[in-house]
Amino acid sequence: MKYSELGYWLKKSAEWVEGYYKQLDDQPLRPKQSPGKFKALLPLSPPQSSQPVADIMADFKRIVPSSMTHWQHPRFFAYFPSNAAPASILAESLVNAMGAQAMLWQTSPAATEMEQVMVDWLRQALGLREGFTGTIHDTATTTTLCAVLTMRERTLNFKGLTEGMSGAPRLRIYASSQTHSSVDKGVRLSGIGQQNLIKIAVDQNMSMDVSVLRRQIEDDLAKGYVPAGVVLCVGGTSTGASDNIAEIIALAKEFDLYTHVDAAWAGSAMICPEFRQYWQGVDGADSIVFNPHKWLGAQFDCSVQFLADPTPQVNTLGLRPAYLQTLDAEEVTNFNEWTIPLGRRFRALKIWFVMRAEGLDGLQGMIRNHVAWAKKLARKYDQDPEYKIVTDCPFGLFTFQYCPAGQNANVATKNLLNAVNEDGRTYLTQTLVDEQFVIRVSVGPISCVEKDVMSVYTICKELQNQGSPTIDSLNGTGVNSSQ
Ligand SMILES: *Cc1c(COP(=O)(O)O)cnc(C)c1O
């Protein structure tokens, strides 16, 4: 294929995209097929000679979309959303076309400088204090790993980088029992070790219990451990739990512990001032992560990290000669020193496009609608004696059980979930709350309207007596509904 043919095929693909979005609403949300079926459609070996683009495109249309889960479907209420706003799709296609690698300022000045400005636009949009800078990573998992590595090195006086961990003191990281598995992964990969991640029990508000945390830190110190940091959570994945940010950050500061706030999903809601009470005190954090690729519509991958002071992270992740170890306001920023990979995508462009095309008004309106519709839907279940709301949360995520008289509610709920997901008009996932099997409803697709949200209840009522577990529908829906 030649670059000179690209224009023609991009027009063709634009036509396809338009058609795809037009008929998305009528498509089953997930393909009905068993593992391995798609693989069987592909040749086992690569072609020796060139094939016409027309054939490649025809095969794409024939086999790929029908084997996809349609994340942009207006009734996708599983996991968390992974929204791709139209302006984001456009921006990503331009980024793809330029094919730039933005590892250094000089390898793409616009990418670096737009990243700086977009992080600041988002800082303002979320109501964070002046002084936070930041960067864009691929995912919250990576961002949290960077924060945990920084906790490690800051505590070890940056000696772990050269000397390794074998002679190091035993560090401790603290997090609530509601934090995402990415925290476990970060602590494992950092060499600190899972056993040194202490999960603190939550209080009745589902926040890390501050007095338990204090006792744990004091105990650890007495036993010769070295506390290094606290990971706090705003809008946990399972049920949307949030820590008491102000109190925990104050405690962390007392012990000079580094703090990282994981607001991967709920951070987007903070563009609405009325939600900021749920992370009150966040301005005291050392590091904050939120994913515009979830709710805000700057599509995957796009995970923003705000940093009160980038220096410890850059000294951890950057390969800097000794004479450059204090960041100078005058020097150019080479963002590869702030993140793990050397190579970087130009992720800021989609933020620029989305924020301009939607405006803060548009984004706030979307979030407010989602939250209001989720509340209205939860009320329907609440008023129905065959259902019960198990958890509610301020950000448009709730969980419920189907509990018809005379039946085991866990079994009945699991059967109902299977029936709903077999049906294909919507897609929901599950989690466990105090040993109860519950269905999660996470309202967030950019394209959904009130009718789509309310249809979840209608679909449940229609299918509630048909549910029976099938092997296929249980595949790939592990109990931890993490995304
Ligand atoms: C989704 C989510 C993550 C993981 O995000 P990735 O970007 O997929 O790594 C971590 N924490 C929370 C609270 C999340 O909601």
Output the CATH class name of the largest domain: Alpha Beta
Structural class of the helices, strands and pairings? alpha/beta
Unreliable stretches = 469-483
- How do the strands of the widest beta sheet line up side by side? 1-7-6-5-4-2-3
Number of strands: 11
How far apart the termini lie comes to 37 Å
Work out the radius of gyration: 24 Å
Mean residue pLDDT: 93
Which CATH-level-2 architecture of the largest domain? 3-Layer(aba) Sandwich
The succession of helices and strands, N to C, reads HHHHEHHEHEHEHEEEHHEEHEEHH
**Overall body shape:** globular
Q: The CATH topology of the largest domain, please? A: Aspartate Aminotransferase, domain 2
User: Superfamily at the CATH H level of the largest domain?
Assistant: Type I PLP-dependent aspartate aminotransferase-like (Major domain)
Short description:
This protein has helices at 3-23, 53-63, 86-98, 109-125, 140-155, 160-163, 181-189, 210-222, 245-254, 311-317, 348-383, 409-423, 450-463, 471-474; strands at 133-137, 171-176, 197-200, 226-233, 258-262, 287-290, 303-307, 387-392, 397-402, 429-433, 436-442. It is an alpha/beta fold and 483 residues long. The chain has two domains: 3-68, dopa decarboxylase, N-terminal domain; 84-483, 3-Layer(aba) Sandwich (Aspartate Aminotransferase, domain 2).
